[in-house]
Design brief:
It is built from three helices and no strands. By secondary structure, it is mostly helical. The protein has one domain. The radius of gyration is 12 Å and the shape is globular. This is ChaB family protein.
């Protein structure tokens, strides 16, 4: 299942993440679902992408 827009994302993702991070999550999820074919693995990949990007932003500010 691909997410065509952020409105299609799970509610917990939409409420926890900013619009920019929702975009990142959606892109990472859609890519991972093609690669792995499993929604649970794609979710893990997408959350990891968000966490990594967030950590990089925090380090850039410091």
């Amino acid at each position: 299942m691909l997410y065509k827009s952020n409105d299609d994302l799970p509610l917990d993702i939409r409420t926890r993440l900013s619009e920019a991070y929702q975009d990142l999550y959606r892109a990472a999820f859609n890519s991972a679902i093609h690669w792995y074919g499993e929604a649970s693995k794609a979710h893990q990949v997408a959350l990891s992408a968000v966490k990594m990007h967030s950590a990089m932003e925090r380090n850039a500010v410091a």
